[in-house]
Amino acid sequence: MDPVDKDIEMLLSGEALEVLPDHEQTVTLRKDVCYIVSAVIFNTEGEVLMVQEAKKQCYGRWYLPAGRMEAGESIHKALRREVKEEAGFECQPITMLLVQESGREWIRFTFLAEVTGGSLKTTSEADSESLQARWWDRESPLTLRSMDITRLIDAGLKYRQKPRFPVCNPVNMPCSVVCQRLLLVFSCSERIWLLVVKHAADLETHARLPVIVLEKRRSVTRAAQRLIEESVRSTNHELQANKCGILGVQHDGRVPGRSDGICFNTLLSLEPLDKGAEPDSPPLLDNEKYTWHEVTDQSLKEKILKRITDKSLLPMYNI
Question: Which residues form the Nudix hydrolase domain (predicted)?
């Protein structure tokens, strides 16, 4: 199999690929980036786990178990710690449900998880983390800290009823920057192309999928548009990128200050704005850095198209 096709196959399977370091954009947790974890956990009666806030600004209000990642943590480790501290339970992540971002300065990972041990935190165990925890039937009156969690709870309910995408959990692989690796797909006449960065003989052994590093105050979900503008400047006004979603997330924070970055492996499709247009080849590129890679392996083509058609990908939202 072609090396680029092998990379695509790995990413479609939820695996990871190394991200080359970019020392100019290296990020440090709590300095350049803030990652939040939150857990949606149901009991056998379908009630959702809630915690009562102890923080002064939202004292007594209710929220999902959630909090900021700490230096040296993996995303899963942070989730388990927050659930234990705030709700009293040990938990096991099942899958990410969605990712929300407001630039690299604020990224929240929401998980569907299940209880594996511990006991419900009571008022006698109140501390600075929370006052208590309870199971909520979503109908009884409850003063919420913010209504934003209703969307997260709904995502958990829908996934339990009918999973829309395969189980997606972070892969432990170091990354020094916040970035998107983009599988930008153009298809027509039963043919599929992906945009790739050309082979550079002095640096790499083969062409690679483009990686866009996020700068300060730049939206993660806008990275694709930046790539299109850079690669097809003269015709990008005639094209639109249809946001699909995330194939996988790469992170390993075990070396604070050196591996605090995150890579989002993202799949999206590129189409002409003119729905009546029927091109027989991808748009011309006017940046010599890039080229189109045609996928000819039938099995791989079917996997890509199915993911796009079914929108079988972890969703990411800019808020």
Answer: 32-159
Phi-psi region of 161 (alpha: psi -120 to 50; beta: other; left: phi over 0): alpha
What's the chain's average pLDDT? 91
Name the superfamily (CATH) of residues 3-28+169-318: Nucleoside Triphosphate Pyrophosphohydrolase (3.90.79.10)
Contact by Cβ (8 Å): 27, 19: no
Task: Please spell the DSSP secondary structure of the chain, one letter per residue.
Answer: --HHHHHHHHHHTT--------GGG---BTTTB-EEEEEEEB-TTS-EEEEE--SGGGTT-EE-SEEE--TT--HHHHHHHHHHHHHSEEEEEEEEEEEEESSTT-EEEEEEEEEEEE----GGG--SS-SEEEEE-SSS---BS-TTHHHHHHHHHHHHHS-SS-----B----SSEEEEEEEEEEETTEEEEEEEPP-TTT-SS-B--EEE--TT--GGGHHHHHHHHHSTTTGGGEEEEEEEEEEEE---SSTTTS--EEEEEEEEEEESSTT---SSPPPP--TTEEEEEE--HHHHHHHHHHHHHT-SB-EEE-
Domains 3-28+169-318 and 35-161 share a fold: yes
38-58: pLDDT as tens digits: 999 999 999 999 999 999 999
CA atoms within 13 A on the CB side of 73: 19
Whether this prediction's pTM lies above 0.85 is answered by yes
Task: Choose between 258 and 66: higher pLDDT.
Answer: 66
Superfamily of domain 35-161: Nucleoside Triphosphate Pyrophosphohydrolase (3.90.79.10)
pLDDT at 314 over 90: yes
pLDDT tens across 102-158, in order? 999 999 999 999 999 999 999 999 999 999 999 999 999 999 999 999 999 999 999
Query: What residue ranges do the domains of the chain occupy?
Result: 3-28+169-318, 35-161
